[in-house]
Design goal:
The structure holds two protein chains of two kinds. Chain A is of the alpha/beta class. Chain A has nine helices and ten strands. In chain A, the strands form two sheets. A seven-stranded parallel sheet of chain A has the order 1-4-6-7-8-9-10. In chain A, strands 2-3-5 form a three-stranded mixed sheet. In chain A, helix 8 links the parallel strand 9 and strand 10. In chain A, helix 5 packs parallel to helix 6. Chain B is globular and about 60 Å long. At the A-B interface, helix 1, strand 2, strand 3 and helix 9 of A face strand 1 and strand 2 of B. The complex binds zinc ion (ZN).
């Protein structure tokens, strides 16, 4: 069974001797290092993030979302008429995000994630890559909108920006694009909107596009999970374990099964993961299963994140979890 | 119009103050083993005295010791309780990280944690100093659990030791004891557990009890939140521009409320007029005799100068509102 991680990865090391991006940012801001030195530390952090995934044996790697501040900040940095506002709690986590402020027509003036070296000069020959972006509906639901006037029109504008980004990601040879929509289960009335926006974002490209749902219970949208014209779904199956029972047949998708808890340091039991995978095969019948983390690994310190990733790969290789090829 | 004359508008702060440069340096030296604890602690006491002097100079009513001895509010207690280990850093937001506690055994309190520094701080001032604790629900939510069977068992074990600490603070003379629960708005489904645990912490206390909660959505937990057994809530409002205040209008708020009128995550200095408007908004939304005024959250992320400036503006605004409520004209109060 092949493996991936949901998206983000710890930026700083548990070993004090290694380069430290946190310190580098502080030193850059206080003028103690120049931009060149900061860029060098950033590159080393990307390299470490790629190497951690490759050494653990992850098949579809991400850039660890190393430069993000929160799910929304890549947009705030890349789009015109968008800025980061006050702090809010990020779902049910001891983590905060800055609420985006939309003050005019949003326009993509820089790439959002496509500039990451992981998709260009650092791109490994031995693994596929996945780019992760905030989905249009979750973005619209978490922004203060002073321009568009409705969730519908703001989400539509964000989808247009994502379309442009996807074109660039495809040119770079990125295999997967994952749109994170953790806000949708809380607002199931926007399932239609999201389903309607997908074809425009894909716009004929053959990149594998998927949606990720995590943190909130899936029960509110479970019956409608089959309505999205995407290639894969990434589902958090640990935050609300009984969500599994409410999942319908989803045989048109590749399922990225988030059975590895990225918010908990305890390592998963092999038999437990194996029996849940069996249940998914029987009940959900996806095209194939990719084993993944429930959400980003940045909730863990790096030493535990590494342990989790190695454990994930070991589990995927256990004979009892089974195999399925596309 | 409401009679606002019984609005004493007592002022306070949430808890932390910025650490002076010499203390930050000493904490690094202590961490790397180049100075011993006695040397570090002398500097913590020096900084605490400076925090008290600043608050007295500004004219605040209920003081804090400033948490010069603490890094993160959960990690500090985990470091002083048995049963915890501390992880390497995880991110909180932006470029801010904390070392997350890991529960690896039965939690016990070998000795009082905060009492000695509380007593020292209270000896420096005639004004009341708040005893400052982190609540059991937040301690659980902000830790990894490798020992207790479930979250409930962990929260209730924490409630026992934090309750013992609260009683020791009261015995040492604390008239106000603040038990912060910023994580309480995280999972509405666990609010009952947080309430049950707080009941254990505040059982038998005669000191005024306060709980600070911030950066959450209060709508799903109100009015059940009013059942949290404390006398006063301390909530943030300025950062969200008071957009969250209407939640508390129905049913009416029944406890004392410390209203955050200063955005502590912004470098921008509020104007006196801005802060006055915020105070008047609070007086409309809450029973005026129950309103206290303070910043949104701890001040540790601001510089010493920003802290002084922001609190000075806050105090000036409060003084003017107090005068206006007593019927003195605006012009008179400005020139006076
Ligand atoms: Zn706070």
């Amino acid at each position: 069974m092949i493996t991936t991680i949901c998206g983000n990865y710890p930026k700083i090391d548990h070993l004090k001797s290694r380069v430290n991006l946190r310190t580098a940012i502080n030193r850059l801001e206080s003028g103690k290092i120049d931009h060149e030195e900061y860029e060098s530390i950033l590159r080393q952090t990307f390299e470490r993030t790629i190497n951690d995934q490759l050494e653990a044996g992850i098949d579809i790697i991400t850039d660890g979302q190393i430069t993000w501040q929160d799910l929304f900040s890549p947009y705030c940095e890349a789009l015109d008429n968008l800025a980061a506002g006050g702090l809010r709690r990020y779902f049910d986590n001891n983590v905060y995000y800055r609420r985006p402020q939309v003050t005019g027509e949003i326009r993509r003036i820089h790439p959002i994630v496509a500039e990451s070296p992981v998709y260009s000069e650092m791109k490994p020959a031995t693994a596929m890559t996945k780019a992760v972006l905030c989905g249009p509906v979750t973005f619209a639901l978490h922004a203060d909108d002073f321009h568009y006037g409705s969730i519908d029109s703001l989400a539509t504008a964000v989808a247009e920006v994502i379309r442009e980004e996807i074109v660039e990601l495809q040119q770079l040879g990125v295999s997967y694009v994952q749109l994170d929509e953790p806000g949708l289960p809380e607002r199931p009335e926007y399932v239609d909107l999201l389903a309607r926006l997908v074809p425009g974002m894909l716009n004929g490209t053959d990149i594998r596009l998927g949606l990720a749902f995590y943190f909130s219970s899936l029960k509110t949208i479970a019956s409608r999970l089959g309505e999205f014209p995407v290639d894969f779904l990434a589902l958090d199956l640990v935050s609300h374990p009984d969500d599994m029972e409410s999942l319908p047949t989803l045989d048109k998708y590749e399922l990225h099964a988030g059975l590895i808890d990225a918010r908990n340091i305890m390592l998963e039991d092999t038999d437990d993961v194996a029996s849940r995978l069996t249940l998914l095969r029987q009940q959900v019948m996806p095209k194939r299963i990719v084993l993944t983390t429930s959400c980003g690994l940045e909730f863990l310190p790096r030493d535990y994140a590494l342990d989790k990733m190695r454990h994930l790969v070991q589990l995927a290789a256990e004979p009892q979890v089974g195999t399925d090829e596309e | 119009m409401k009679n606002n004359t019984h609005a004493p508008l007592l002022t306070t702060t949430v808890g932390s103050f910025p650490k002076p440069a010499y203390l930050l340096k000493a904490r690094q030296q202590y961490a790397s083993g180049t100075i011993d604890y006695t040397a570090l602690h002398e500097l913590e006491k020096k900084a605490t005295a400076e925090v008290i002097a600043l608050q007295e100079e500004i004219g605040l009513d209920i003081l804090v010791h400033g948490e010069m001895e603490r890094g993160d509010m959960a990690t500090y207690f985990a470091e002083h309780l048995e049963g915890f280990e501390i992880s390497s850093p995880v991110r909180s937001y932006g470029n801010r990280y904390y070392r997350k506690p890991i529960v690896k055994g039965k939690i016990t309190r070998p000795k009082p944690i905060t009492v000695a520094l509380f007593s020292y701080t209270q000896s420096l001032t005639e004004k009341p100093v708040k005893g400052m604790l982190t609540g059991p629900y937040t301690m659980c939510d902000w830790s990894f659990n490798k020992y207790y069977r479930n979250r409930r068992d962990l929260v209730m074990a924490l409630a026992e030791v934090i309750g013992a600490e609260a009683r020791d603070l009261q015995d040492a003379g604390a008239r106000y004891i603040q038990i912060d629960e910023p994580a309480i708005s995280t999972r509405p489904a666990e609010l009952d557990l947080a309430i049950e645990a707080m009941a254990v912490v505040t059982a038998g206390l005669t000191a005024k009890t306060i709980s600070h909660i911030c950066y959450g959505d209060f709508a799903p937990i109100y009015p059940r939140l009013l059942d949290l057994p404390v006398d006063q809530f301390d909530l943030e409002f300025a950062n969200s521009d008071f957009s969250n205040i209407d939640v508390f209008s129905s049913p009416p708020f029944t406890k004392e409320i410390a209203v955050g009128v200063i955005d502590i995550h912004s470098h921008n200095l509020e104007t006196k007029e801005q802060v006055k408007q915020r105070i008047y908004r609070a007086l409309k939304a809450f029973p005026p005799d129950k309103v206290y005024i303070d910043p949104d959250c701890g001040l540790k992320t601001r510089t010493w100068e920003e802290t002084r400036d922001k609190l000075t503006v806050m105090m000036a605004a409060v003084r003017e509102v107090r005068r206006e409520l007593r019927g003195v004209t605006h012009e008179a109060s400005v020139s006076g």
